[in-house]
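In the laboratory, one determines a bound structure by crystallizing the protein with its ligand and collecting diffraction data. In a computational setting the workflow is compressed into a single prediction: the sequence and the ligand go in, and a structural description comes out. We illustrate the idea with magnesium ion.
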Amino acid sequence: MALYVQKFGGTSVGSVERIKAVAEKVKGFRDNGHQVVVVVSAMSGETNRLIGMANEINDEPTPREMDMLVSTGEQVTISLLAMALHKIGVPATSYTGSQVGIQTDSAHTKARIQRIETDELQADLDDGQVVVVAGFQGVDEEGNITTLGRGGSDTTGVALAAALKADECQIYTDVDGVYTTDPRVCSKAQRLDTITVEEMLELASLGSKVLQIRAVEFAGKYNVPLRVLSSFEGGPGTLIIADSDKDEDSMEEPLISGIAFTDNEAKLTLLNTPDVPGVASRILGPIADANIEIDMIVQNVAPAGDYTDFTFTVAKGDYKQTMKILRDQVIPDLGGGELRGDDNIAKVSLVGVGMRSHAGVASKFFRVLADENINIRMVSTSEIKISVVIDEKHMELAVKSLHKAFGLDKSDIEAE
Ligand code: ADP
Ligand code: ASP
Ligand code: MG
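The predicted complex, in structure-token form:
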């Protein structure tokens, strides 16, 4: 007998028929003698629909009310799934995040889980029940409903698996595993049998939404066996493995594991800004004070010694506010500088632990983009990744060309 935490995403519970299919799947595991905790997302499109309505009413809704609103999507699916299980003879009880004791901090819309009470949950399981928990939500110390950021049901699943010491956390979604890149953009992408936590963290943070980054962090920190699978087809899916379990010396180990991309960032540049000590903190300080996260940063070497250009990226949703802070606070404070912005950019990144021990990955990466006439606007690297900012219109071409050039295309590997 094993204990599984199974998370089903929005598409997997997107209609009454699909909810019934999830119930059948869960029943299958239970019939085989396993204990199951199910975590569900809202029906696909529901969270966006709720956010849309909020914005029609107020373009600056308070984060507390947003959480109160968007958490309702998951409350619908937990109850419907419990009813579907009852209908086929499976005892089940649904719980909201707050009922099940998912305690978070008070950072509304991006709260972090601090503690999970498992006693009652465990009692239900021992009593033969399937426990159905609302993903994406928790409760803070004052009893306010909080949510964990978009895609947060993954994190609910992994956190529950960690707290219950489950044998495996299974993330059921609309693709049958983690691919070398988003299979919806590159039809030649291939499913990976395994990927390391470290690589998955990079892919998730660089834009691959197949797993929320915090879910991967949890899995790494608490050693939760984590697998991504299809809700619609069978198959082994992709197992996220500990970094130490990867055999980097194996000749068959690919150099590159995957390509991530996102068009959800915007770039801001302060041209001709006075090159004085502390300039970076005077530019970025007020932005950080507004709780805006900065991603890539490039400061030019000042050609004449007195002036420099400073460029950085933020999430597209923070673009307008960042522009305003630069215009109204930073430029007057620095006493100069010319502001440029561009929100038609994309970030494309190559990830692989094999890069550590191989030279020449960066030069090949740049050559591939040059051959396609794609101009690189910014670059950032770490031991296991290279990211570039390019014009948004070139994103798909860049992903496909890099995928092919680095030998990730399906036919290439099959031919080997
Ligand atoms: P769910 O609603 O089940 O949480 P998501 O839409 O959040 O599903 O995540 C699954 C989607 O992630 C896939 O449909 C796919 O388009 C996208 N995706 C992006 N990068 C990858 C990747 N490397 N491998 C698999 N899927 C990816
Ligand atoms: N329903 C939430 C969202 O759309 C959480 C999730 O699906 O993981 O972001
Ligand atoms: Mg998701």
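The chain has two domains: 3-174, 247-416. Keep in mind that any predicted model is a hypothesis to be tested, not a measurement.
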